[in-house]
Amino acid sequence: MTRIGRLQIAVTLLMVVAANPAASEQASKPADVGRFLGIWTGDTKANEKAFSQGLFPAEHGLKILTANDSLVVTTRFRRPPIAADTPWLDGDQLSYKLGGAISPDAMNHATATKLAMDGDALVLSVVAAPGGRGAAPRSPENIFQTMKMSVNGDRLRVEWSSGRFTATLFYDRQKQSGS
Known about the structure:
By secondary structure, this protein is mostly beta strands. It has a single domain (3-173), classed as Calycin beta-barrel core domain (Lipocalin), CATH 2.40.128.20. It contains 2 helices and 11 strands, in the order H-E-E-H-E-E-E-E-E-E-E-E-E. It has helices at residues 3-15, 48-52; strands at residues 25-26, 38-42, 60-67, 70-77, 89-97, 101-106, 109-118, 121-128, 143-152, 155-162, 165-173. Strands 1, 2, 3, 4, 5, 6, 7, 8, 9, 10 and 11 form an 11-stranded antiparallel beta sheet that branches. A hairpin with a 2-residue loop joins strand 9 and strand 10 (155-162). The longest helix has 13 residues, at 3-15. It is globular. The protein starts with a helix and ends in a 6-residue tail after the last strand.
């Protein structure tokens, strides 16, 4: 698989997230997610293992915003060669409604997205949509991937998994001066 192919897969994989629904409670209001909002840049050194395994590109990040009653998560990346002025490009984007939503054709399957809180952590879910195209189970719970986020100051920790792949990723909040 080429490096570009791995980059495309990594960008797609980064956006799909799910959690153990039994351990999570539904987020009750937009204020529950406020500390997660912003533009986050991946810590290249801390994420070296996930990069070297081909799971994520070296230069990646997340943009987390709210729109109406949804949390919108967009992957970001920079194409090599990387210099200080290399622009960030937006990749895949998924919306997570507080009550759940259907996202047609995410990862080439009809999926449902969910937003929940697990203590202080934000848990985003993408599972196969009931009765939708691609609803055949990939796992017993029809979970495509999971991402559990926690914030400590200006540092975002993401526990990510998809099938047999797992990674703990770290991001730093990007200051408003650049994007």
